[in-house]
Amino acid sequence: MRIGLSHRLHAALERAFPEQRIFLRSENETKFIRLGPGTQLVAWTGSTAFVAWTIIATAILLMDSIGSGSLRDQAAREQALYEQRLNALSQDRDHRAEEARQAQERFNAALAQVSAMQSALLSSEDRRKELETGIDVIQATLRRTMKERDAARAETEVALADLGANGANGGEEVPADVEKTVDFLAMALNGAAAERDLMAHAAAEAALEKDRLIVEAKMMEQRNAQIFSQLEDAVSISLTPLDKMFRAAGLPTETILESVRRGYSGQGGPLTPLKFSTKGKDADPDSLRANSILERMDRMNLYRIALQKTPFAMPVKSAFRFTSGFGPRWGRMHNGTDFAASHGTPIYSTADGVVIHAGRQSGYGLMVKIQHEFGIETRYAHMSKIRVNVGQRVSRGDRIGDMGSTGRSTGVHLHYEVRVGGKPVNPMTYIKAARDVF
């Protein structure tokens, strides 16, 4: 049975590939090469496999070329889009900063106006009290003068009665001293009447001045109320984004503000609230309202100081792209965010602090560590050049190094970390929280 099957296969092979001869002719003789069915089958199979491999390899190469070209175009489009977004964010940040500066200027001008108006109001109040005291003195003097006048009239009537009685009894002449007394009393009465009229006129003028001061004080209170409303709105516009930014970053705002307050508690400093004089009495509503605004301004100033000490800024200001975020990557934890740009791109400190490491460290390559306030530390790895030294105090926005690819790195980029209490946190939490302010 096996022999029959072999004969049938051989016969089928001969039908498909009949024997072929290739003749080789020279000047003297002619030779030929016999190609049997098996040899032809092997040659045909090899040629077919080679052609198929060539087609498949060409297709793979074409697909790779098309795919890589598409990825490059997509990457270029994403980079252009991201640069546009960065430019828009930068313009929006500048616009918000300008608005905040203008609001601060308006606030300072309004505060100066409130202080001047408050001083004028206190001066008017003092003048009003002085006028009231003067009126009381004038009225007391007038009453005393009227009593003296009445007493003088009574004495005059008694003296005249005595004179009349003496004249009726004996017809004696009036003594000279009595006449002098009567003349003196008459002059005193006339002087008292003139002084009474003068005092009455002064009292009327003082009453008019008092009414005018009361009207002026009411108008000043209305202007103060309007200015206070504008100040409260300006403070709210400036304070709300700052408060929202710190809370969005998950920071303990009250603890941070209290820490800043302890560090900036010098007497007479910029954070000392102003207090309007109350002349030893209970504070009036305007003073309470003004002090409330000043306390909120103090909170805003504390926020601005804390802002400089907290890493809300971007470590790279030139054009870049995000290449890797915070979180698990290839089965391992990636503790930071990667920013890719050209070799030598400047790297900046994201907050005020002190450099605690500036050198090479295992897989980080050339790295800078900066210790900030509130237990926060930032790391800048894979640098090509370090521009700071250990112990150096840096400010937010200071250049600390250049971008490179040292350590375990597959390309030029910055590995940026933020650690709170020694534990890594997502740096984008801080960067995104600051977008509403900058």
Structural class by secondary-structure content: alpha+beta
C-alpha Rg (nearest Å) = 51 Å
Total domain count: 2
**Distance linking N and C termini:** 91 Å
Description:
It is rod-shaped and about 200 Å long. Mean pLDDT is 76; it is low at 267-274. The chain has 6 helices and 14 strands. The longest helix has 134 residues, at 37-170. It is of the alpha+beta class and 438 residues long. Helix 2 (37-170) runs antiparallel to helix 3 (176-248), helix 3 (176-248) packs parallel to helix 5 (285-308) and helix 4 (253-263) crosses helix 5.
Produce a short descriptive summary.
This protein has helices at 2-16, 37-170, 176-248, 253-263, 285-308, 427-433; strands spanning 20-25, 30-35, 321-324, 327-329, 332-334, 337-340, 346-348, 353-361, 365-371, 376-386, 393-394, 399-403, 414-420, 423-425. With 438 residues, the chain is α+β, with helices and mostly antiparallel strands. The two termini are 91 Å apart.
Provide tags for this entry.
single chain; 438 residues; alpha+beta; Glucose Permease (Domain IIA); 10-stranded antiparallel β-sheet; two-stranded antiparallel ribbon; 6 helices; 60% helix
Secondary structure blueprint with pairings:
Blueprint: H1 2-16, E1 20-25, E2 30-35, H2 37-170, H3 176-248, H4 253-263, H5 285-308, E3 321-324, E4 327-329, E5 332-334, E6 337-340, E7 346-348, E8 353-361, E9 365-371, E10 376-386, E11 393-394, E12 399-403, E13 414-420, E14 423-425, H6 427-433
Helix pairs in contact: 2-3, 3-5, 4-5
